[in-house]
Amino acid sequence: MLTLRNVSKRFGTVDAVVAVSLEVQAGEFVFLLGPSGSGKTTTLRMIAGFGDPTSGDIELAGQSIAGVPPYRRDIGMVFQRYALFPHLNVWENTAFGLRMRGMPERERPKRIEETLSMVRLGGLEKRYPHQLSGGQQQRVALARALAYRPALLLLDEPLANLDRRLRDEMRIELKRIQKEAGTTMLFVTHDQEEALTLGDRIAVMHDGRLEQVGTPAEIYHHPATRFVASFIGDMNFLRGSVLGHDAANNASDIRLALGGPVQSVAGRFDGGAKLVACVRPERVRLEAATKDFAREGGGYNGVVKYAGFSGDSVRYLVGMPDGSDVLSREAIEGTGPRFAVGQAVCVTWPPGALNAFAD
Prior knowledge:
Helix content: 10-25%
Distance between the termini: 38 Å
Largest sheet: 6 strands, mixed
Oligomer: single chain
C-alpha cells in the first residue's frame, strides 16, 4: 500500500531524514516510533504531501505520488490537536471531507451514519466540538478522516493530549476501529507502550534513520541496535569481553565484567573485543543468597538497594560487587516484596536472555 524508497529530507545543512526505506502492507497498523527530533513527523509530512523529499520516492498503491498535492492523494490525516472546525457540529465535521472529495450529496448521509456508528458517536451528531470531551473530539477527527475511506490513514500523535485513562481507552478503540474499517494506518508516536500494544509492526527511528523494523515482540526481545535496546522499555546494560565464537551456532562466548560464569550471546564477535550485553529486568531472577558466593549453577551476588511496589509487580535495584546496578522486575507473589532493602541476593537470568552489541 505504501512504499518509501531511500527517502531523505534536508533542511539547509541538517539531514532530518536519511535514506529511509519502508513498506506498509494493505490493512497493516504500522508505527513510526522515536524520540523528538528523530525524523518521524517529517517522514509523515512527506507522505501526506506537506513537504517534498530531497531525494528518494514515495509510492501509494504502486504509483509514485511525487508532486501530487495533498488533497489529491488518497490519504487521510488525524492531527495531534484534532483540527476540528469549531463552527461545525459532529455531522458537519464528518461530512466535510466527503464534500471536498466530491461525493454526491445523496450518498453522504449513509456514509456519515456508518462512520459515526463505527467510532461510537451515534446520537451526538448535533453537538459542537466545545460540547464534547477530549475522547469524543478525537473520535470526530477519526470519523472525518475515515469517512471517505482513504487508502491510507496517517496519525500524528493523536492521543498525546488525552489523560492516561482516556488514552488507554482510546488505544483499545483505535485498534477496534482499524480492524473493523480495514484501513491501512501509519501512526507516529514517541510512546513505546502505545506502539507495542497497538502495532502490527514498528519502525524505530533515530537521528533521521530507521534503526529497526519488526513486530512488537521482535523489537522488544531482539533489538537490533543499542539505541533500540535502550529506547524500548527498561534494560540492563552490562560490559564484557568476547572469549570466542561458535560458528556452528552463530554464537559467541563472553565474560562479563561482573565475573561469574561464561555467557553465550547470539552473533559473531571478534575474540577479545569489548561489548555491551543487555537483559530485560523481567528476565532477571533473584534468590536469597544463603552463602557469600553465588549459588551452584552460576550467578552473581548483590545487595538490594531499592524495592518498589507498584501493585502487580515489584521493581528491585540490586547493587553488584563492581559498583554497577541491576534492575529486576517480578510479578507479585503474596502481598508485597520478597526481599528487603539491604538483603543479600543471588542474581541470575535464563540462557538466551542476553543480547549483545559491540562497545
